[in-house]
Description:
By secondary structure, the chain is of the alpha+beta class. It has five domains: 5-134, 3-Layer(aba) Sandwich (Rossmann fold); 158-296, 2-Layer Sandwich (Beta-Lactamase), CATH 3.30.450.40; 334-484, GAF domain (Beta-Lactamase), CATH 3.30.450; 488-627, no CATH class; 629-703, Arc Repressor Mutant, subunit A, CATH 1.10.10. Helix content is 47%, strand content 23%. It has 21 helices and 24 strands. The longest helix has 60 residues, at 272-331. The termini are far apart.
Amino acid sequence: MTQPITVLVVDNEPGFADLAGTMLEREHDAIESVAATSAEEALSILEQQGVDCIVSDYEMPTITGLELLERVRDDDPDLPFILYTGRGSEELASEAIAAGVTQYFQKEPGEERYALLANQITNAVTQYRTETELRESERRYERTLTTLHETTRDLMRAETKDDIYQSAVDTAGEILDVPVAAAYAFEPTAGTLEHAASMRDSRELVDPELSFERGEGLVWKVFSEGESAYYEDVQRAGVEHSQTLCRSELIVPLGTHGVLVAGTEDVDGFDETMTELLYILAANTEAALDRAEREQLLREHDRTLTQQNEELTRLNHTNEIVRKINHGVAQASTRDEIETTVCDRLADTDRYLFAWIAATDEETPVPTTWAGVDAAYIDRVRDDDDRAPEVDLVRETLASERVQVVRNVLEADDWDRRRKDALTYGYQTVLSVPLRDDERRYGALLVHVPGVDSITDSEREVLGELGETIGHAIRSVEQTRAMLTDSRVELELTCRDERLLFNRLSDRIDGLATLEGVIDRGNDVVVFVSVPAGTELGAAVGEWASVESATVVSDGDDETLFELTFSSTPILDVLRTYDVQLRAATTENGTTTFVLEVPQRVETRSLIEAIRHNYPETSLDARRETTATVSARQLDTHLEERLTEKQFEALQAAHYSGFFDWPRESTGEDLAEALDVSPPTYHYHLRAAQRKLVTLAFDGTSS
Length: 703
């Protein structure tokens, strides 16, 4: 359909303007005429509506046709203006052309003249419209380039990739005048293209949950191939509708970052100019994303360096604290001094608020030593008993034998009752360090730190090593104290657990079995057991995998002494760990009663728990304080120092087997066989041990 052409016909002769308009409309269907009988009326019409061409007479009162032309040219220098006059002269024609008239046309009778005038009008309007559209296109292109330049500056100033994606799609929608523009970013971990941004005006048309898996849709195809693609009609591309945004799509890859998509609901909705503009925008967007990625990597690198420097400074500070603690611990002579030194040194720093140690002597771990906090806080922990969150933390620490951290007391489960204390004393992080050596646990060290999650992994490791150092130090001073004191604790225990070797042994014996002595050889254990005479113990235990041998050492009228060799058992492993001596043991009818000699430094509760862990049906019958003579204690110590391992075994075997009784209950040959050595070798070790023992008894500590 031809676009209408509005023609303003101006003539002061009554009826001529209407007649001329009618004739023009008759000559060309597209022409729609408007009549004016004066230049003033024409100017008034122009103020109210737009026209495509003016046909004006020259001779009019007040304002001539050329004066009207000057007025029109002030507003629109290019609007077609045809001077249609009955007065013709070269002078007027020259003046009209100089004034900028589009055509000069003389009035003449006949319809042919109107046909010619209509043709002149359509030609002039067509040219005018073409030039106007061209100028508008140039202006629009200039505005688009300006927008692109401004967008480029914005892209290069954007701090995040999200801002870059959003700016790109908004600009695409503006310069291309399309209903849909969206960006999809590549997620390397998931291997998918995820929605990154969509034009604000098209968010209802673009599903933000839409993503493209590997090999899925046109978007993934363009991204994987790295080449832009224009799909005039996506329906002809054979792609599912759910994987497209519009009927016509222009997809441009953004390097390794993702893709930029623009779409219209029309088939073939993009021309070359639109395509070129989107390419330029995509190139600028890719450059901006590259820049943002580099800056992000630099920021992360700087942040990492800053964190590492802070951690290194903090670690150096922690190491300095630990060095001071180790120095103080090395000079301490008691466990109390060690624990006090540790708490004082930790509390006397800017890094930690306060510290305390929970011992495990009682059923519920309670604070025994503290520094940096008032006694009221410690009393609250003690009063809470098993309800105290610190108690659970200590138990978890001891069970795992690893450092435990409560990262935020204000948000941690089961720490509600400490919220007020945390705010009052200013801590949020709590660290619990196990105090242990290679074999035993002595409790836990709790350190309260300001800030949330303010303990680094390196600091955690250093404090964990400190806990082991403290554990070894406590064990060392307690061993030293045990050597200087004669006080011991004697425990009498009863075990009915069928897993105990002695209880299994009693099931094969008709009567009471008594343990006469134990020789711990490291890889295996030799025990001497007295059983009622006539008992065939060897046949009874010969099929047991744990018993390597059962040999008769002596056979009397009332009892028989057996030597049993077997691999170490859990009960002996526990006693060895806690430096506990087995002084006596008897078993009958599946129940064993044994007496243990425990150093004062050993926590009896921990010892009993360790035994019950392996033999649950164990009960404590009695606990007694004992004191050995100084001379006997010194004799034991010096004897162990002078005898070799073989000599000590030979002497123990002779004592436990009744070799020194009269009449002798065993011979050297019996003991040699029990210890799996030749008789001459056994007698050699026994004589050497006897000589050293006699020398020690008569000469004291002299060699």
